[in-house]
Amino acid sequence: MTTTETDIETVRPAEREGRPWAGMGAIVLTSVAAMTPAFGTAALATPIEHGLGVSATGFGLALSGFFAASALGSFAAKRVAARLPVPVVLTAAGAIALAALALAAAAGNLAVLAAALLVAGAGNALVQPAAGRYIGARVPRGRLSLATGMVSAALGAAPLVPGLLAGFAAGPLGWRAALLLGAVLPVLAIPAAFLARTGRAAAVARPPAATGGGRPVGRVLVLWTLAAGLATIGSNAAASYFVQLGTHSGLSTALAGLMQSLAGVVAVAVRLAAGGFADRAPRRNPALVIAMMLSGAAGLALVAAGSPAAFVAGALLAVAGGWGWTGLLLAAVMRLLPGQGERAGATVQIGLFGGAAVAPLAFGAASSALGVPATVLIAALIVLAGAASMLAGTAALRREAP
């Protein structure tokens, strides 16, 4: 027997349920701050490469280290998030991001930059498990998908501030100063973390068999984590090489950059809207995740066509629709693991950041060997494989339902 919607009984803290949103704001701010070292470094790639005298391959390896550290750090992070108060965990994540930005700004060679990004990735690993624990303890069941959509939207919004710093600060002030200006986000996030108190009670499950320790639930989690990783590889490849794909399709660099910003805004809106909509029928979250993954694969197939019109339509589907599923998947996993929000957050994070670590290097190598159109089609097939894994996990869950 596995968890179904009716199996879960949530016990709330003594605080009123209607007041979890200040804490959610703190989590969103910390999520953005924890990602700033990676996105800030990525946005400043050209001046950093010139300033440190490193190759694009070496820089890509250092950047991938951030996502790999976030994925691998999830195993320890879920234990930390379960034992320490959520504000303490979020404060630690903000402080690590602040230290990593300072270290990256002072880097004199690639090794120091890579070390800064590894440290930042370890700090970033703390955020999703802490967010899962807070949501499980404070957010009413009827707003669970909206809350996870907010966390997901934070990941979509994270590149916006670094992009502004790269556009307006790096030129007159230099890339080191631009990174230090990015430290404003963790400085703001650290004191805000104390808004995310969970109270004395937390979510628990009824009956005991629904806590997620059995083999059926474990199999579902493996398949869903694999789905997240595969879908992220395809979608992240499109996001990482958005401008390059746009210029290959005939757009100017400026227009492709504008399209990237627009796609980012649409992605944030889709994640929030999808979360609000999914709360009306939470049992359908896995089906919505599958549909969004399929839309992402279709978008990548359109991008591979190579025309400007196909790129515009396909890119919006691939980056916005294809990334809109992340919050819904977190909500689905939280319903599968009642009372284990930190484990739910870590599970989704392993897939997301594991895929993100692989995507840029894999896409770069494949496009050099096979060409851009063929590589984008391969990315679409990888996303399809992710949707198939998600479907297999959902089917296994339904077979075990009473």
UniProtKB/TrEMBL annotation:
Q: Where in the cell is it found?
A: Cell membrane
Keyword Transmembrane (UniProt): yes
Where the record annotates domain Major facilitator superfamily (MFS) profile, the positions are 1-398
What GO molecular function terms would the record report?
transmembrane transporter activity
Keyword Membrane carried by entry: yes
List, alphabetically, the InterPro entries matched: MFS, MFS_dom, MFS_trans_sf, MFS_Transporters
* Topology term for the membrane: Multi-pass membrane protein
Name of a matching Pfam family: MFS_1
Q: Name one GO cellular component term.
A: plasma membrane
Q: Which Gene3D superfamilies match?
A: MFS general substrate transporter like domains (1.20.1250.20)
Q: What is this protein called?
A: Major facilitator superfamily (MFS) profile domain-containing protein
What is the species listed in this Swiss-Prot or TrEMBL entry? Actinomadura verrucosospora
